[in-house]
Amino acid sequence: xxxxxxxxGVSGRLSLPQPSAVVGSSxxxxxxxxxxxxxxxxxxxxxxxxxxxAEEQTFVTVASxxxxxxxxxxxxxxxxxxxFNRSTRRPMxxxxxxxxxxxxxxxxxxxxxCLAFRERTGQFLIAPTPPAGETIxxxxxxxxxxxxxxxxxxxxxxxDADKALLDEELIALGLRWRFLRAKGLDYAEEMASYxxxxxxxxxxxxxxxxxSLTPRPADPDRxxxxxxxxx
Length: 231
Fold this sequence. Notes:
Layout: H1 3-13, H2 28-47, E1 54-60, E2 66-67, E3 75-78, E4 84-85, E5 90-91, H3 98-106, E6 116-120, E7 123-127, E8 135-142, E9 146-147, E10 153-154, E11 163-164, H4 168-182, H5 188-204
Antiparallel strand pairs: 1-8, 2-7, 3-8, 4-5, 4-8, 6-7, 9-10, 9-11
């Protein structure tokens, strides 16, 4: 569904006149629906680590704590546990806290097998200072939850033909209760229905890891390595 079809569908559910256009409309109610649709899209993107928003970033280190090209323009947050140094084939520790970062900086010498990282003021920082030329890769969640009709990534609906990368029925349900709330009307049931659908969508998103009740679950990182008796 496009932005226009979402707003028309919600308008029909609420017994409101269905607009022929949304973006650029001078109708105050349509302007409000557009603002609430963008509010819902942004809030929904932040509720969960949606697979539709997951992207991969790789960069080559410079010999400095601050890695200038490490964070993409659409970066919102890291996917936990996904940061690896592909040159050394080791995971990176982080994001570390401000206290941990400052503790490292206070040491006269600091050495570790796994580099640590944190984000600060839009920069990707690494400690200890890495050598130049190592490849770092990680997954992150993009703030761009919408796309133009031509496929351009966007962090909001900007035109009637724009589409959402997230579940558009969820956006419609969210827009419905937000509109009722904005008008001072009872929205409890509509919000409860939205939350139930949201929980199911989050449970379905990306599938689930297999859970084993055996003593040692299968670990793809330990193929052909026995549990013991290495000698």
